[in-house]
């Protein structure tokens, strides 16, 4: 391996410490404790782990955590009623409804029911539109985390060729917007892209967000590129065990890249740290205070 390993775990710990320091100033100077409500519908064990980790990180940063666990059979009307109570609750500054939702629920309707000022996922069309218009917004956590990680190895991204593989509303599109705001030349590639290896090879910064284990190979990567792997795929590891792998074939890629994020320990921990930062920002803005620099 010749690439620099980008230590997402350590960088996330640093960001969480900054959020904690800013939260303690908010409490001291304004009596304000930012509150995050996380809503989980159903029993998916992986989702339950994420929700538990988010709650733990929230409390450790000095924020208030409100967990709402609803049955898998919850109706759309029941979930919308909860969202509307959380919208009206002054102790709740951020609302995250864990995705995916069960099939009887229209996820888009739920996202649009969240007050955009409390939308710490940044998934509401108002926040997506504000981001693409270059206006202040609550920005999706994983994309922000990706850009922070890339900037740890290259603080000035202006002029870089950035290739984003994946065009989802939760990662691909917003990360492309953030890289554009950093003055990168941005290409969004996807399942219909012709010559995907050739397109990836152009990248100074390659963001992989496709959700396919180890799809991006070492010989698709330009020597020296920064590789940000958003994929978190659980795969068989033999003897009945499983392991997590990214969307990038790590060992091959690390032999040619200039810097690379591991899975686990890369983008994942940054998602949670950025969620806390968004909750702090949402609480400050709702109180009419400037967004703390973290
Ligand atoms: N409304 C909504 N917002 C989300 O942000 C959201 C969601 N729904 N649904 C599920 C995905 C997934 N997600 C992760 C967050 C942190 C890690 C994370 O910290 N991963 C660690 C450990 C992973 C492990 O060991 O299982 C790592 O990559 O090192 C992973 C995944 C947020 N999501």
From TrEMBL:
Gene Ontology terms: biological process: L-histidine biosynthetic process; methionine biosynthetic process; purine nucleotide biosynthetic process; tetrahydrofolate interconversion
Cellular component aspect of the GO annotation: cytosol
Pfam families named among the record's database cross-references: THF_DHG_CYH, THF_DHG_CYH_C
EC code: 1.5.1.5, 3.5.4.9
Domain Tetrahydrofolate dehydrogenase/cyclohydrolase NAD(P)-binding: 140-286
Keywords: Amino-acid biosynthesis, Histidine biosynthesis, Hydrolase, Methionine biosynthesis, Multifunctional enzyme, NADP, One-carbon metabolism, Oxidoreductase, Purine biosynthesis
Catalytic activity: (6R)-5,10-methylene-5,6,7,8-tetrahydrofolate + NADP(+) = (6R)-5,10-methenyltetrahydrofolate + NADPH; (6R)-5,10-methenyltetrahydrofolate + H2O = (6R)-10-formyltetrahydrofolate + H(+)
InterPro entries: Aminoacid_DH-like_N_sf (IPR046346), NAD(P)-bd_dom_sf (IPR036291), THF_DH/CycHdrlase (IPR000672), THF_DH/CycHdrlase_cat_dom (IPR020630), THF_DH/CycHdrlase_CS (IPR020867), THF_DH/CycHdrlase_NAD-bd_dom (IPR020631)
An example molecular function term from Gene Ontology annotations: methylenetetrahydrofolate dehydrogenase (NADP+) activity
CDD domains, sorted: NAD_bind_m-THF_DH_Cyclohyd
Cited SUPFAM superfamilies: Aminoacid dehydrogenase-like, N-terminal domain, NAD(P)-binding Rossmann-fold domains
Stated role: Catalyzes the oxidation of 5,10-methylenetetrahydrofolate to 5,10-methenyltetrahydrofolate and then the hydrolysis of 5,10-methenyltetrahydrofolate to 10-formyltetrahydrofolate.
Matching NCBIfam families: PRK10792.1, PRK14186.1, PRK14188.1
Protein name: Bifunctional protein FolD
Organism: Blastochloris sulfoviridis
